[in-house]
Amino acid sequence: MLLVAVNALVGGTLGQERTVLPLLADQVFHLDLYTSALTYIVAFGLAKAGTNYFAGTLSDRYGRKPVLISGWLIAIPVPLLLIFGPSWGWIVAANVVLGISQGLTWSTTVMMKMDLVGPERRGLAMGFNEAAGYLGVAGTALATGYIAANYGLRPGPFLLGAAFIALGLGLSVLFVRETHHHAKVEAANHVSVHAQAGSTLSNRQVFTLTSFRDRSLSSVSQAGLVNNLNDGLAWGLFPILFAAAGLSIERIGILAAVYPAVWGAGQLITGGLSDRIGRKWLIVGGMIVQAVALGMVAFGHSFGVWLAAAVLLGAGTAMVYPTLLAAIGDVAHPEWRARAVGIYRLWRDGGFAVGALLSGLLADAFGIPWAVAVVAALTAASGLIVAVRMRGSDHHHRPPLPVKLSVA
C-alpha cells in the first residue's frame, strides 16, 4: 500500500500538466501549428520510453529502491522550469526531464509490486498500481484546472507538482524497502530449465522476444503502443478542441479529469478480473471500446457527448492497462521479467511520441476531428491484432514457457 501511495504521487506529478500545458501553448506562447504545440508530448514520450528500457536493466543490477529515489531526484527541477520558462523550448526541456523521472519512478513501482505478489494476484496488483497513478493524474488535472481558472496558468498549478515531488521523495527515501530479493526467490523456485534459460538470455534476446518473436509479448507491446498513442492525442488535442468549441477552462478541466479518473478507478476492478477470466479478451474488448469513444469525440459537438466519450475512453483504457502489464509478467521469466517490463514500457510510452506527431500532423492538415477519427481506426485495428495473434486466455495461469517453446 505504501508503493500504491508513492505511485499516486508519481501520477500527480504528471497530472500537473494535463489541463494546463495545451492552454499554455495556445494562450501564452501563441503556437499556431498543432505539431509545434505537441512537441512537449513528443519530448516526454521519447524520454520516458527510453528510460523505461534502462530502468529494468538498472533495477536488476542495482536494486529497485535506488532507481526509484533517482527518479524523484531528477523530477525536482520540473515545476521550476514550467513556472519560469520564458520560451516554449524551456517547456519542452521540462518534459524531457519529467519523462526521465517518470520512466524511473513508475517503472520501478510496477516491478516492485510484481516482486511482492505471486502470479495468481499479479493482475490485481497491477490494477492497484495503475489505478493509484491515474487517479493521481485525474485528481491533479481537475485541481490544476480549478487553480488555473482562478489564479492563472502560472505559477499556481505547478506548485502542486512541487509538493508531490517533495512528498514522494521523502516517502521513498524513508519508508520504501528493497524488493529485488523477492524476484530472486521466485526465480529460484522455477523449474531448472526455466531458470537456466532465464539467466543466460542477453538484453538483445529479451528485446527481440518481447518486441517481435513471442506471439503474446509482441501482441501486448503493440497494443500498449497504440493505447498510449491515443492517450497522447487526448492529452495534447482534446483541450484545444474543447476550447475551440467554447467550453470554459473549468469544463475543460472536468473533461481532462474524467477520462483518467474512470481509467484509474476502473483498474481496481479490471486488474483482478483479468486474474479470473484471462487477459486476452479483456484487452481486445478494451481496445474496441476506446475506438468507439474516440469516434464519439471526433463527431460530437457538445459537452454531454464529450463527457460520455471521456467515460467510455477511461473504461476501455482501464480494461487494457493493468491487463497488458500482467500479461508481460505471466510470460516473462522472473530472471528477465524486469527487462521485459522495461521493453514493453519502451514501446508503450513511445506511443506518446508517435501519437503526438501523427495527430499533430493530421490536425494541421485536416483538422482535429479527422485526426481523432484516424486514431480511432488504428485503435480498433490494434485490438484485432491481439484477437488474432495473442495466445489464449488460459495462458495466464501457466508457468513461463521454456524459451525455445516461447520463441516458436
UniProtKB/TrEMBL annotation:
Under InterPro entries, the record lists: MFS, MFS_dom, MFS_trans_sf, MFS_Transporters, Sugar_transporter_CS
User: What topology in the membrane does the UniProt record assign?
Assistant: Multi-pass membrane protein
Annotated Gene Ontology cellular component terms? plasma membrane
Name the major location. membrane
Write out the entry's keywords from A to Z. Answer: Cell membrane, Membrane, Transmembrane, Transmembrane helix, Transport
UniProt-recorded Gene Ontology molecular function terms: transmembrane transporter activity
* CDD domains with a match to the protein in the record: MFS_MdtG_SLC18_like
Q: Which SUPFAM superfamilies match?
A: MFS general substrate transporter (SSF103473)
The protein's location, in the record's own words, is: Cell membrane
Q: Which organism is it from?
A: Cryobacterium fucosi
Q: What is this protein called?
A: MFS transporter
Annotated Major facilitator superfamily (MFS) profile domain residues:
1-394
One Pfam family linked to the record: MFS_1
Bilayer-crossing residues are 31-55, 67-84, 90-110, 131-152, 158-176, 281-299, 305-325, 346-362, 368-388
